[in-house]
Amino acid sequence: MCTETRRLGIRTSLPSGTRSEETMQQAREWLRDCLHNHEDCRSSQRAIAPLPTRLVSVQREASCLIARLCESVSLPPNTDYLSLSHCWGNVKFTTLTTTNHQQFRDSIPIAELSRAFQDAFLVTVELGFQYIWIDSLCIIQDQKSDWRAESSKMASVYQNAVCNITASGFESGLNGFLREERQNDPTPISTDVAWDMPSYWDAYPGRYFVLHDSSPWEDVFSGPLFRRGWVLQEQVLVRSERWGCSCSI
Asked: How distant, in Å, are the alpha carbons of 1, 31, 89, 146 from that of 93?
């Protein structure tokens, strides 16, 4: 009986931490594939919906990030933006208030923000975007009228984000979500598979199959973030999740 051996296209090495350039490059490739090669994602028209009232603009100058709060009326209606899902936790952190509203419009003091927000800013720039929506930086936290108005729009905010950054494994933003070292090693071994029916591959051109003993989503969905009922809309409404592409990062 004829036997054919094919090497599966599995990466057998991973960078030591998720803050690495290799990780960011992989995320860029996944998102680019989603937006350019998935028909439903490509045809999704975010421009028909209004932008969130406020967005955070993040840019890199030399080796530093700078950020400021933008009112959406000053932006083109088709401006792309990311969003963030995170646990607030019990540790007090800097948020948007009536006191610092004007200051944030001039410049947001990044060093005073939680590490999770700093990481989200870095991911925004690394993925090639300028704007991100974060609830506690885009809703005035000590003004009830603003909170009521903005919280009623959150479904639209997440639905029209290009991608949702999900800090799923952390109780608060104190230590951030980008790590220099991985908490576990998900690297698969290099695998050769022998098939005694070569014609099987002719019936499924361009496809391969990977066997594994666990799902990476199990750890994600068992994390602290997914114990919040509020997070449901943040996961199912974002554009790529809405089409089943699982492109939250």
From this structure: 67, 30, 10, 19
Quick check: 106 and 68 in contact, CB under 8 A?
A: yes
Q: Does the CA dihedral 11-12-17-22 come out positive or negative?
A: negative
Q: Given a cut of 50, is residue 245 above it in pLDDT?
A: no
Residue entry with tokens 């890199």:
60
Whole-number average pLDDT of the chain: 75
DSSP letter (8 states) at residue 73? G
Model confidence band, residue 241 (pLDDT cutoffs 50, 70, 90): very low
| Crossing angle for the helix pair 115-126 and 21-37, to the nearest 10 degrees | 60
Mean pLDDT of 151-161: 87
- Residue pair 131/68 in contact (Cβ under 8 Å)? The answer is no
The full set of domain ranges for the chain reads 16-188+216-242
What average pLDDT does the segment 166-173 reach?
68
List CB contacts of 171: < 8 A, sequence separation 6 or more: 87, 89, 224
Strand partners, 58: 67
| Residue 235 binned pLDDT confidence (cut-offs 50, 70, 90) | low
